[in-house]
Design a protein that fits this description.
single chain, Rossmann fold, 5 strands, GTP binding, lipoprotein, Small_GTPase, GTPase activity, Ras-related protein Rab-8A
Length: 144
């Protein structure tokens, strides 16, 4: 049983690992093969927040350009948004400005945003975005 339901969107460019992140969190499974999301996928997980069970509805969005107009409709009613970028792909980091603008235009001003640098298991030579740069961006937009 749970006391509240929260809608959380997972957004970012194509192939940054949004679906893997969602599966890892919800199913505690890791898939090392690429799974392309068509439109949107939906998962749920009950978690404890300060000893109170809550239900998270996790909306895994497609990052492909052709689905981006659909994504804006999903912002409505979201209490949380996880912005994902791939630490080995500088373009995915640079495109965060697009996603942040989208959030500003389509989501509630009260929405909680979290920045996630994905694929951190790579060695430092493979990283295109270092940890400090990600943290600096997160701080500038009041994101944990």
């Amino acid at each position: 049983d749970f006391t509240a339901t929260y809608k959380v969107l997972v957004i970012g460019d194509v192939n940054v690992g949004k679906t893997c992140l969602v599966h890892r969190f919800c199913d505690e499974r890791y898939y090392d093969t690429y799974i392309s999301t068509v439109g949107i996928d939906f998962k749920q997980k009950i978690v404890n927040l300060d000893g109170v069970p809550i239900k998270l509805q996790i909306w895994d969005t497609a990052g492909e350009e052709r689905f981006r107009t659909l994504t804006t409709a999903y912002y409505r009613g979201a209490q949380g948004i996880v912005l994902v970028y791939d630490v080995t792909n500088l373009d995915s980091f640079n495109h965060l400005s697009y996603w942040l603008r989208n959030i500003e235009e389509n989501a509630s001003p009260e929405v909680v945003k979290v920045l996630a640098g994905n694929k951190c298991e790579v060695n430092n030579q493979q990283r295109a975005v270092d940890k400090e740069r990600g943290q600096k961006l997160a701080e500038s937009f009041d994101m944990p």
